[in-house]
Write a structure and sequence with these properties.
The protein is of the alpha/beta class and 84 residues long. It has one domain. It is 46% helix and 12% strand. Strands 1-4 form a two-stranded parallel ribbon. A two-stranded parallel sheet has the order 2-3.
Length: 84
């Protein structure tokens, strides 16, 4: 993300894509929540929209923003006890 500021003065758009879990051959036999799992087409559409809007960061599934907010703000000693 530090490069976004550096490259902005050179008219380069940097997009950070945080898709969460994406359905693929690697995940086909896993029992995954449909609320947490994005389809490849959904990821592509989200990227296309973000590039058009010149967005800096996107979460493909909005629920991941909340999940990551919780993870980032949970103290390490508490997070270790959770056992995720």
């Amino acid at each position: 993300m530090i490069y976004r500021n550096f490259l902005a003065s050179r008219s380069v758009h940097v997009l950070a894509v945080l898709p969460g879990i994406v359905t693929a051959r690697m995940t086909e036999r896993m029992d995954l929540s449909t609320k947490l799992t994005a389809e490849p087409r959904e990821v592509a559409d989200a990227i296309k929209g973000a590039v058009e809007r010149k967005t800096g960061v996107i979460y493909v599934r909005p629920i991941w923003r909340s999940i990551m907010l919780f993870i980032r703000n949970t103290p390490e000693h508490v997070f270790k006890r959770i056992g995720i």
